[in-house]
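Hey forum,

I'm writing up a methods section and want to include a predicted complex as supplementary material. The small molecule is flavin mononucleotide. I've pasted the protein sequence and the SMILES. Can someone with a working setup run it? I'll credit the forum in the acknowledgements.
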Amino acid sequence: MKSILYMAPIRGVTNCTYRNIYSRMFKGYDIAVTPFINSAVIENCEDRAMRDLFIHRNDVSFDLIPQILGNDSVGFIAMAKVMGEMGYTTVNWNLACPHKRVANKKRGSGMLADPDNILRLLDEIIPAIPIEISLKVRLGKDDPHQLSKLIPRLDDYPLEEIIIHPRTGLQMYKGEADPEAFQEVLNLTRHQVVYNGDIDSLQKFESLQERFPSVHRWMIGRGGLTDPFLPEQIKQLHDPAAGSRIERYFQFHEALFSEYQVRLEGDAHLLAKMKEIWIYWSAAFEGGRRLYGKISKIKSLSTYRALVDTFFSKDPQFLI
Ligand SMILES: Cc1cc2nc3c(=O)[nH]c(=O)nc-3n(C[C@H](O)[C@H](O)[C@H](O)COP(=O)(O)O)c2cc1C
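Reply by user p_vandermeer:
Happy to help. Structure tokens for the complex are below, copy them as they are.
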């Protein structure tokens, strides 16, 4: 069966500007889940994350699934209705965000410690929203066995799918995603499952594919930021006419830079946005870490431009 590839939500990076430009320049993703919107911002449709979802602002070749973070059914339902009116057919509920300020307020991965509350909210939400719902989960808040207690109880709910990132919230992004724990929860659900965690090379993808033959949906996060060619490599969609890897990488940089220059107010915001992307890109090149060390300290746009132009003009070697 054909693999379906998902662009993971990475708040701050995979916004509509990134998605649009990516979709123009690269191939391979079938679906993108958008970074979370807090259900509390429903009062404010001018919120940047909400504006990011406007259909006219999204010109992409893959499907989009908006995501909500929250633990109140009223806010969730109101927001999912707005998403339905916008034209979206599925909403994803974020039960995975590991950050303490989120999890300690019993949101994101913090909800996984209380399965009854999740089921109670689903009982309220599902009949009230006009679109499908999917979940994005971790193994637990702080205990890797929390998901295995929740997941069989989800069998009775009409969920579109469950995206599983096999780490606990407490782990944040440390260590490695746990394939054994993933297999354990996979055996406990009748739902369609999407695997997410540490897919950062073709070899890694192929070994996971071999290990989990019943899984056909794969979400790629940080690995796809560092290596934007990875989805087309997995799908064997490489087009030699598209130019060399380094040319395409540089063009991607230029397109993001000029689009953010228009969209963001002031050099400081533009610089901050580009620095955020280089956190991932720096792992793509020999000497990239050193470059990131320098970029992270830059205060002026002209210094940034000069440094990046020099870096690319020296034909840097890929590590990926
Ligand atoms: C900076 C950052 C922002 C993220 N933002 C979100 C988000 O908004 N919603 C979400 O569900 N996951 C978010 N994630 C988690 C990723 O979607 C993904 O689950 C995680 O990075 C593991 O996948 P990977 O190993 O392929 O990167 C974020 C991760 C990072 C590092």
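Some notes you might quote in the supplement: The first helix runs from residue 16 to 25. The chain has two domains: 4-234, 243-313.
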